[in-house]
Amino acid sequence: MTVADQIRKTLGTLPHKPGIYLMRDRFGTVIYVGKARDLRKRVSQYFQPSRRLGWDLKFRALTDAIHDFDFHVVRSEPEALLLEGKLIKEFHPRYNVSFRDDKRFLMLKVNLNDPTPRFTLTRLRQDDGARYFGPFPNSGALRSTLALVRRQYHLRGCRPLTPTERDYKHCLYAHLKYCTAPCIGNVGREEYLEQVKAACAFLEGQCAEMQEQLTEEMKKAAAGQEYERAAELRDLLADLRHTTKKVGRFERVPYSLPLAIDPEKDLVELAKALGLPVPPERIEGFDISNISGTFKVASLVSFRNGRPDRGNYRRFRIKTVEGQDDFASVAEVVRRRYTRVLKESKVQSLESKVTEERARDDSVVEAVASVPSSTEQGSRFTFHVSGVPHPGPRIEPCPPSLPDLILIDGGKGQLGAARGELEKLGLGHIPTIGLAKEFEEIYRPGEKEPLRLSRDSGALKLLQRVRDESHRFANTYNAQLRLRKISESLLDEFPNIGQRRKAALLKRFGSVQRIRLASVEQIAGVPGFGGKAAAELKAFLAARQ
What we know:
CATH superfamily of the largest domain: UvrC, RNAse H endonuclease domain
Shape: flat
Helix content: 40-55%
Distance between the termini: 57 Å
Structural class: alpha+beta
Low-confidence stretches: 247-259, 367-400
Number of helices: 20
Mean pLDDT: 77
Number of strands: 14
Strand content: 5-15%
CATH topology of the largest domain: Nucleotidyltransferase, domain 5
């Protein structure tokens, strides 16, 4: 069965329901993720002859690369939007533009263990004991609904962890009677907590009564020719329905790096295309990842015989480069990587020599043991180790762990930076190339024009797998560092902490977890903290465990 027949057969199984679809190339790599209100109508448009002949070159390249596709049915279009964003962030498909950043959908958060709980907006779900609602695909509808909830259930919207009478004097919510003002004791904590729990039930979907009330008010306003008021109520009702609509939760889609159909053949083709004497047994790929010059990291992936050698993956934090400079970052990571390789090879050679000497000594001891003792000979013998002509077994030193080909993710500039460092280290003989993403051009040292291989070339597909894997590995490390930073920013939620006091805390204790374990007296010893602030911080962190 041909690829066209397989796709035509799969199209016939698509339902007329909302969902998402994943386009895959011949290696199984996800190259595009999309959503649809009607899966069959939307996906069928990709394979219409009239669209294939259109002027959009990107669309034609996508359709030419599609080898198969998967789909997943959901209950509504908002669910499709949420799942689409989740999968794009997971797979980073080549032909997707939206949702490829680290920005997530908004959620509502409330910690019932706080002295005076309040609802806040967040984009990251943490294991801190708080309750989370969402994510919500429509942030505008969420903000409008949150304002309605605060007004309906008389909840506070101020920032302090434990509001006081001083905060009440400047609180607009309290003076407008939107808030029951627990800061001045108008209501007790238990009574206020019941208000918050009622709001939580509302956000979980128990809002039929509120919808009926808004509908009645909208009709009355329209009957009284108060059309602006009726329009406001109509929009508020629509936002409420969007926010409280049930949305499914999706598990992580299993995914692994696709393997080549015939890696040995791809290696032979690559050697021929690059003019290498033999197919490269080991290929190392480098990539740089940063966001506006922050969290600068690099990745090194290793492929052996055309397959990932994950035991030899490495990751680096860029240390000497200021700002966003990919050329300098490439130079640093190449210098660090192969300086270490050369040092390790020298240590291995030295260890081999020591082992050789020990082997010689062992052979001398064996020779001494084989000579008759002085009692048997009637005389005393003296042996000199240096005088025994027994070299022992020869042990070859371990060769340096150097690759047969180095792939840099980038163009001429990145390649030049890498080659400069390799020349300084005396490793200029290692073949090095750069692979630019836009047109999949291969840059080689000393060649003015880049090499362009056919999109169906096995050699190009092999290089793309190395490049994409290094990109994935670098982005994963970058994301881990960002999440670690976000976890430290839990301190930002503590009212009026400021950057200096936050830095002083982290400098003294090292992490939020260690601050949790510290006593009030230890926290009070940090510059800028007193006993009262230390006790409040301790209670704040205890409520978020």
